[in-house]
């Protein structure tokens, strides 16, 4: 049997693909030959990236089910099939249970958890045809808790078990479903927090490798786990975290 990381002729949707981890994944999948659909709220950056990688930009708010359905329909119309959806779009929040407003909870859950579920649901019928796969971007904060991450911890914990459940549902169709749980990564999302020396030291002290990740370090794993090289990997929530969850 020959397994490779070739994505020639395959179509990959990456939500939240305009920046950060999503952007690094879009570039990496494109390097491996995929038709990449960058789906994001940020039209300017998304269009620029899409033109650089010979991909396509589709505007989409993942917290709106109809927009996610439309994203998948438009992709299949344009490329004829869908092979991978990477449910990456997400937003952060830093509130304890006491400080958190009801609106904050609703907003985080709707983007970080509902958005992932909409992506899985809309993609499933097409992935059954292509025997493709789903990759969700969860977080170490889906595997462990931390102070001031109430809604985010809950949403990402939901993504972790949603991943297992959808993997079980779709395994009979040879559709694989996994998540990556990154530790702290240098992206626009974390720029401000990591600009604070005290917080950066905290993150480094919690990370056995002693540093934050670059987005490309997540993208490499994303391409591998979505490729034929990982053909027996499903239902996995893989920490890519410099060791954060090892202790
Ligand atoms: P980022 O730098 O903020 O980029 C996220 C992109 O997603 C932005 O372009 C953003 O657009 C877009 N987006 C936000 N809400 C959206 C929505 N409702 N619909 C569609 N697009 C939306 O974030 P990142 O750090 O790359 O994070 C990507 C994923 O990794 C997230 O799920 C995050 O939770 C997860 N993660 C990140 C880290 C980390 O340390 N960076 C660690 C663990 C997990 P706008 O900027 O215009 O809003």
Overall 3D shape: globular
Proportion in helices: 40-55%
- How many strands, which pairing sense, and closed or not: the largest β-sheet? 7 strands, parallel
Radius of gyration: 17 Å
Low-confidence stretches: none
Give the termini distance in whole angstroms: 37 Å
| Widest β-sheet, arrangement of strands | 3-2-1-4-5-6-7
What is the beta-strand fraction?
5-15%
List the helices and strands and how they pair.
Layout: E1 11-15, H1 20-31, E2 35-40, H2 43-52, E3 56-59, H3 65-79, E4 84-87, H4 102-130, E5 133-137, H5 150-170, E6 176-182, H6 188-194, H7 197-206, H8 215-226, E7 237-240
Parallel strand pairs: 1-2, 1-4, 2-3, 4-5, 5-6, 6-7
Helix pairs in contact: 1-8, 3-4, 4-5
Task: Give an account of the 3D structure.
The chain has 247 residues and is α/β, with parallel strands linked by helices. Helix content is 47%, strand content 14%. The chain has a seven-stranded parallel beta sheet, with helices on both faces. Strand 2 (35-40), helix 2 and strand 3 (56-59) form a beta-alpha-beta unit. Helix 1 (20-31) packs across helix 8 (215-226) and helix 3 packs parallel to helix 4. The protein binds NADP nicotinamide-adenine-dinucleotide phosphate. Residues 15-16, 18-22, 40-42, 60-63, 88-91, 111, 115, 137, 139, 182, 184-185, 187-190 line the site of NADP nicotinamide-adenine-dinucleotide phosphate (NAP).
